[in-house]
Queue: 2 jobs
Job 1
Amino acid sequence: MATTSPSFPRLPVGASPRFLPTARAESVIDLIGNTPLLEVGKVTRGLLRRGVRIMAKLEGFNPGGSVKDRAARKMLQEGLKSGELTPGKTIIDSTSGNTGIALAMLGAALGYPVELVMAANASRERKRIIQAFGAKVTYSDPLEGSDGAILLCREIVAKNPQRYFKPDQYSNEANPLAHFETTGPEIWRQTNGTVTHLVAGLGTGGTVMGTGRYLKSRNPKIRVIGVEPDDPMHGLEGLKHMGSSIVPPIYHEEELDEKISVSTEDAYEMVYALGQIEGILVGQSSGAALIGALTVARELKEGCVVAIFPDFGERYLSTNLWIGWQSWNRSRLARLIAKCRNESASATT
Ligand code: PMP
């Protein structure tokens, strides 16, 4: 794979041009990672003790628009290295959307056809982006969620196993490894090693496992916290309610220090607050991650809590999320904050 040119880091606006690297890459593949870290200071104002900060890792800045670019790149690289992915094969996987976009983008860049199986109720934007990259989409029963897509994908591959390379993000160790090698080191560098907590939503579990492992390898005291929907019938695209789902083989709950359940309603409220108060438009799972981060941070005397914001909000403008965006106003922040205070007791260890 043509990943020879180093990805260029994003430098602050005021950086001296003398130190600016050439902003040029040989392939879109090389633009994955090195995403910025944003201090979330306004939504949290007055809520946290002086020495406590919350930082958001803005994964929407990846070229495919999400955190999943990292895992998809690593899974394809490993497939090429092992000889499982060879010219003539089609890349196939089941995906709730962002992995599909990442695979479709990378398949196009590398010259491999891509077929994706996803629940029919994935957002219209996601479906269209995937098609725009030239990938083929097969829809599974929306009522069966991501598990339905997993099962249908297995059936399709079983009928013609030679034809496909299936990265299988749920059981592929290259998924957490991507985060061990990139997301973790970036956060360590960006916080000058001062990070004390990592908060990330649970989908495949790849982000939280790999990033958490790296950070703990640098400082075993860093606490790693997973965020999941509080209900099997949730509206947090990209996240899994582990208790009622097929648990991904790459996910090892015992490695988490804590797990926090977040309601769809609160996550949406936080997305609206971030839009209007921080000026950043993110997806539902970012709202959930920030609720988790706040829940943890408000108990601390000092610390640096890093929350992963997996994608931006544009790709959800056709979903229910948009309805709230239109009617939300700042006066609702106080109610949301009060709720975070009261409900932090629902955090499970
Ligand atoms: N948020 C969104 C929007 C996602 O698409 C995903 C991936 N399904 C996640 C969070 C969770 O990431 P991971 O699969 O690494 O656990």
Job 2
Amino acid sequence: MTEPYLPSSGRYEKLPYFRSGRSGLLLPRISLGLWQNFGETHPLANGQALLRRAFDLGITHFDLANNYGPPPGAAEITFGCVLREDFLPYRDEMIISSKAGYTMWPGPYGDWGSRKYMLASLDQSLKRTGLEYFDIYYSHRPDPNTPVEETMGALDHAVRAGKALYAGISNYSADQTRAAAAALRALGTPCIIHQASYNMFNRRVETGLLAALDDEAIGLIVFSPLAQGLLTSRYLTGTPEDSRVAQGGPFLKSEHLTPEKIGMARQLNELAQARGQSLAQLAITWIFRHKQVTSALIGASKVSQIEELCAGVAAPALSGDEIERIEAILQNKP
Ligand code: NDP
């Protein structure tokens, strides 16, 4: 690895921190996820540079899941390397999360939301990262065939066993969220955070989840706020060779770059420039208009991308007129 790491002494003067729901947990306005760009296909040195710069900029929250890679598990191993090399003295300054819910190992116990899977996977994630505990442990998706009380019981157990400090859920619908929150409340471990996708091209959370989160006092951490890069300057004039699309992964593909989406992104880019922002910064400002949103959980392949998004946090909120103009471009109000 590289030279010894000494974090920036001014790191807590750069980003604001917002409370997740009705909890004591403060999260940075921008959080960094390790879903992409931290697997075996990417140099460890780049992952290390991204994590170091993020922490220097006040990003205290790093999001993992058992299956992040490739191969599954690799992102947790990468994070563990950087933790040992750079971050151990600062562990108490960090919020590190992991999740289980998607396919992780073969057979009936390596997927979904059984107590068996959730707790075995947690132990594996702790081992891969070298952490003694996660700050947040999530059910990554609802399991239609396991009682929600069982899945939430596993999260409650993780907290009581000292292997997690807080319990969270991800990709649950509004009704599933209410049921999960009730199950956790009954056990005495509140659900304090929900991780859901939200961006200008995907507004599902506006159809009921935001209201449920408000009722339950659960904070929303938004994943893919940039629509994996579609809501940035990345694809406005073509497909750069080093982009997520060009790398040919299974998630963002060239067929997602439709003329309609690129046309909207170009119009949004003009609107962003008129208010002195980049498109990526505008996309983040746009999700912050909801009070339920605690943090924007971004991904990044380059240090400059993290810098740009952190710099954009100080931008003024959107005016009513700007919100209307964005609606006129998107034409997708739920
Ligand atoms: P984003 O929507 O933030 O997309 C990130 C990508 O956008 C980057 O990899 C980069 O693309 C591009 N980008 C970022 N910043 C800029 C910039 N300033 N200018 C230009 N392009 C930029 O989020 P992700 O889809 O990566 O998801 C973020 C995190 O959310 C994940 O790491 C994970 O922690 C979490 N997540 C959770 C899920 C769940 O089910 N709970 C599902 C998916 C994600 P490029 O690589 O091409 O440079």
